[in-house]
Design a protein that fits this description.
Elements (H helix, E strand, L loop, with lengths): L4 E2 L3 E9 L3 E8 L7 E7 L9 H18 L9 E7 L2 E7 L3 E3 H6 L6 H20 L2 E2 L8 E4 L5 E3 L6 E2 L26 H4 L7 H15 L7 E2 L6 E2 L11 H10 L11 H13 L20 E8 L6 H6 L1 H11 L2 E15 L5 E6 L5 E6 L4 E5 L5 E5 L6 E6 L5 E6 L3 E6 L4 E7 L5 E6 L5 E6 L3 E6 L5 E6 L5 E6 L5 E6 L3 E6 L4 E7 L5 E6 L4 E6 L3 E5 L4 E5 L7 E7 L2 E6 L3 E8 L2 E9 L3 E6 L5 E6 L4 E8 L3 E4 L2
Antiparallel strand pairs: 1-2, 2-3, 3-4, 4-6, 5-6, 7-9, 8-11, 9-10, 12-13, 14-15, 15-42, 15-43, 16-17, 17-18, 18-19, 20-21, 21-22, 22-23, 24-25, 25-26, 26-27, 28-29, 29-30, 30-31, 32-33, 33-34, 34-35, 36-37, 37-38, 38-39, 40-41, 41-42
Amino acid sequence: MIGQLLTGRYLILEKLGAGGFSETYLARDKYLPRHPLCVVKCLKLSSNSTISHESAQRLFETEASVLERLGQHHTQIPTLYAYCHEQEQPYLVQEYIDGENLGRWFARKQRLTSDAAIKLLLELLPVLDYLYSQRVIHRDIKPSNLIRRRQDSRLVLIDFGAACLLPEDESSTKPDSDDLSLAIGTPGYMPDEQHLGMSQLNSDLYALGMLVIHMLTGVHPREFKQDLISGEIDWHRFLDEKSVDPKLIEILDGLVRVKFSDRYQRPADVLTDLQTLTSAKRSWHLESISGWRTVVQQTFIPVAAALLLGVVGGQYIHAHGKHIRTLLTQFGKQFYQSEIRLTMVRDLPIQSGVKRMVITPDNRMLITAGADHILRLWSLPAGKALKSLHGHRATVTSLATSRDGKWLASGSEDGTIRVWDLDSGQSLLAFQGHQHPITAIAISPDQRSLVTGCKDGSLRRWDMQTGIRIQTLKIPDAEVTAVIYGSTADSLISASSDRQLQVWNLRSGQLHRTFAGHTDAIVGLQIADDHTLYSFGKDRGFAWDLKQEELALVFPEKSANSIAASLSHQNLVTVHDNGSIRIWTRKRGRLVPREAGTLGRNLDIALSPNHHYLVSLSSNQRLRVWQMNPVGLRSVTTQ
């Protein structure tokens, strides 16, 4: 395949590897600027493959489905770019992860220390927790399927070729096809139930435990025997137990229990025990495989959190009971309540007052706009200053990043718009867009265009490559206060100072629908899925069903005066102008806030999309980075 131009777009450069039923190649995308690298995977059974072509075909299609479903929502899972056929041969095109896999690192006779093993678990368990929430079993977790990404030193889980997607019905563990019954995986890393074709949701936890044990001891899991008395894996004798925390050994034992019913059931359960282990130390060091930094935990503030699958106000249920019951069925009935530790990890030195700030979607970088008109990039959570971006001559009034965290758009008081490459820190475009201050910016999901909102009520859409104006929309007699794209690049939602929401069809350039209901200024918008919009105002929060084109859910009065609100998959957090943090859950058909303490009165707040980090700017211009860590998770069913 070397030299082939797949579908006239992907130029095959070299072969990366081969498995039981597929081959992978490095390629370049000839359609995109700078021809970025990507990975092409083709279905091809090896001569010694033990599975049928039909099973391989199903697994290949499942891999595409899983990557499409998960990759765009999690930065440690590759993104699917295309699933195509050429001459009746199926191909996957996915994100290329530049870095070194742990198998190659381990081949250099490297070993994990006890602290580095804890760090590895803390980094990977949230990924498995996300898979668990999506009812996905990876079934092939091993060192070679984990890549330490060179860009940000984060581990990325690759190769979902053996993955199995369970049905949404949690009472069933049988997939739509018979893929679950396949004895697929890597010997030594897969547990007995997987070897017998009866994989469970916690089978990946066994593989993770074995991976860490392998890298602690240097002994391959196939060499471990079962203890004749206990029946459990006998691995302790290969370990220098004096150098490993006994609590860590206990946790690893819980991960690799032979019987899946005796094993940890959920990744969150392991995280709970790990947090207990780490918080018991006044300071602890986490060594990276590629040189992790020391992290000193400072101030712990216990807060409570809940994963939100549906929210509703009691008064609206009374008036629209049948419709709300339908919505609750769509949003789900199962909740997970957890405790969170909010830890201040950094107090950033700032030389100029901060006017705006945002955290990139990949959760690795904070961007601040200073009173000196300079944009500054900071790494999270280390708080290290990365770059300073110069160019604006007036106060920056709005910031927005692309979904992949590569591009930044900034608008200023003088109507100037700039587009930046966050990797290089270079200004790619600069143009005068409005005659009045920019009040809101949004970058389209396909990253081809951006929309700016202005104090004069105008909305303008621009080409991201050229800066050419594509379209102008107008809200009569009102200012634009917020703007967000819908689920596609053709849908746009704006909020205005007259306390209304506008839904625009960008393809036709027409106002499709106007929503009214807020009694005070609307300060933020969040898109939850293809048809659910959350709006947060000084009065309270609302949820709107864009498909039914009506108000769906009403927040209690305690949602008022929020200065930041973030929906992360199923987790909703609001921070209010008095510094209080509230995390919301549904209880007996009502939306209930769980008070999570206060950070003191703040001028501004930035929340990372995955809710791992919170950055606060106080009235005395102290900029602090907080880390939000779940320490417990339990399932509760609402009535």
